[in-house]
Amino acid sequence: KQWYQRRVRGFFLPTLIIKKLKVKNSLVLCQFMYTLYIAAQFYPKWGTLIPAAFILGLGAAPMWSAKCTYLSQMGTYAGRMKGVNPEILINRFFGIFFMLFQTWGIWGNIVSVTVLKPEEEFNMTQDEINLMCGANYIVPKADDDESDSESTSGPSKTQIYTLAGIYLCFAVIGPLLIFFFLDPLSNYGEDERREQEGKSGIQLLMATFSHFINNKYQMLITPLTIWSGIEQGWFGASFTVAYIKCPIGIQYIGYFIIVYASADAFCSVTFGYLLKKIGRVPVFTMAAVLNLVVIFILLEWTPTTHSYLYLFAVMWGMADAVWQTQINAFYGVIFVGNEEPAFANYRLWESIGFLAAYLLSNNLQLKVFMYLMVAWLLASYIGYTVIEVLERKRTGSCSVYACTGGVVAPKEQEEK
After folding, report:
1. Coil, helix or strand at residue 83
2. Which residues have C-beta within 8 Å of that of residue 177, sequence separation ≥ 6?
3. What is the enclosing helix (H) or strand (E) of 2?
């Protein structure tokens, strides 16, 4: 329920908040909004969690949009200063960011495993696993959840307070580091750019809607943006439950997320160099193939050994590294001059993907959900391919990033 709160709220705030506070201040304020939800874990009641989740949702979309805007503008600025294609630096900046970001799964789960020290023993027969787990998994009804919770003992209050306290310290340190050490974009021409735009807050808000309605590239990339939310939500809500908790035991989830996040972090930065060598289309194709291979194998087989499951976690992390870094970078390249409405759309549609993943996983047999995922991924890839074809026709040649032809000027964006 907290996921629904945080993903539904804040869709239309990014352009307004970034306009008023500018990028750096938006990052600081919105990160502090996360701390309230973590602090609510010290007294986890409806009266504390729901308002805190609401506030977190209000801050999530502006924070991520501000981050994308900062990286895109810095990449463009650095490219112009160095006399190189800004697309190269935008991809590199996003790769480095997501390499560091994806380590959340490493540090966060090392902390949780160390503090909670799960010792639950788990035993199921092979027949029970085949019948109840994997692609046949269905989320238990409320009555089943209550009976399960009564039969298992959760972490102690001391463990919960220790865990929440550690996370809260990091949540406070993060925005303070940004406030004191991050250069504002005003040092690199943000004020001049905004004066030239001359748009009011309402105009910026309308630009977010207009960007989706009037920009065919945005419409074509939207299904793939939704997919990036679906695939993350599926791993967090379905894979960890149906393929780890159900057949093996909840105590192993943290270890799998560490492996997944490690692969994600490593590939986030290395795939940027791979993309420079072979182009964007092969890298996007590789990610789609990895997702499809994992889905089709898991549709027919429920592994009961750790080694194979770790392999699938690595494969999914590799694919996620492509979607997270390269879709963000793709937005920064094809929507130059329109970063704020473009990345506001990105957060909106990715959030809808998260929401869809959690809703469908809770209301459908997992096998049905996974078939729907296959259909959506194929449709998303077609939409992305159309953009690449249109760009190749527009430019008449391919760049090192496979048919982007470099940076698209703002005036050209309006024509799209």
Report:
1. coil
2. none
3. helix 2-8
Among residues 365, 220, 219, 242, the alpha carbon closest in space to that of 303 is found at: 242
Q: What is the DSSP string of 218-276?
A: HHHHHHHHHHHHHHHHHIIIIIIIIIIITTT-GGGHHHHHHHHHHHHHHHHHHHHHHHH
Show the tokens assigned to 327: 């879709």
Helix, strand, coil content of the chain in percent (nearest 5): 80, 0, 20
pLDDT category of residue 89 using cuts at 50, 70 and 90: confident
State pLDDT tens for residues 162-189.
Answer: 989 999 999 999 999 999 999 998 887 6
Give φ, ψ of 104 to 5 degrees: -55, -40
| H-state helical runs in 102-200 | 104-116, 126-132, 142-151, 157-181, 190-197
Cα-trace Rg, the chain: 22
Q: Strand, helix or coil at 120?
A: coil
Please give the Cα distance from 228 to 226 (Å, whole number): 5
Q: What count of residues does the chain have? A: 416
Helix (H, G, I), strand (E, B) or coil at 58: helix
Q: What is the pTM of this model?
A: 0.76
